[in-house]
Known about the structure:
By secondary structure, the chain is α/β, with parallel strands linked by helices.
Amino acid sequence: MSAPVTPPPVTWTPEDTEVVECCLCGIPGRLVHDLAPFGVVRCPSCGLVFISPRLRPEALQRLYDDVGYFEGGVYGGGVEAGGAEDGASSRDRRFDPAMLLQRTWTAGRLALLDRVRGRSPGGRLLEVGAGYGLFLDAARRAGWDTSGVELSRTGAEHATGTLGLDVFCGQLADAPLGPGFDVLCAWDTVEHVPDPLDFWRTARSLVADDGVVLFSTPYVSSLPARLLGTRWWTLKPAEHIWHFTPRTHAMLLARAGFALTRVVRSPLAPSNAGRLDSLVGVARPIPR
């Protein structure tokens, strides 16, 4: 049998891109790195780093709908688009380093959630950017009433069809969700959304006043980001269109009605295990 053919990488052109402004200040950014057809820019007012020009929404959707988008990263080979796994391959995948790391994060984040709430699992939990549904499935097994939102059709189909989860495919603002969630999680999601301020404002409308938000993102003030510049492995200008620091996270969340209460940056913490350039944040709604 012939070996599978790996498709060539997508080449984006200026026609696939659009120019945007800072979501906080409404002004253009100043160029930091020219990665044509993309630009890495920094807002001269608030310091938020973002991509402009960046992919248009329709080009971004093509990227996320690629069946290979989740493969080879933190998901390793642990999940296939079709969802079917034979016994031998399933046993092999359990020991895939990427999948072991994924399970470490999941356990660490569920434990962090229990600590910041000060009580055992229970209530309504929404995950935005649910991927294949691995975290959401673990949260459901821990006792949560779960819902999810995922832009990738491949990821959403696996979460719903294989794992039987309630996951809406699309943007958070379009999801048919009612308010009153006890927890909202957004793991490696906010750097992808078209407008983070709109995203967090929508999240605020869904989270109960005594609820809690947990999220993770790469951060551009990390040591790898500062040392490596354009060689930073998490720069990814096609998909990571916003780059934050703890300060810009706090500014953005405050504008949307949240207070950033905790930031976990240590790669030794289970919720952030092995991540030298990412953080986990905890935020709570500001009383209306």
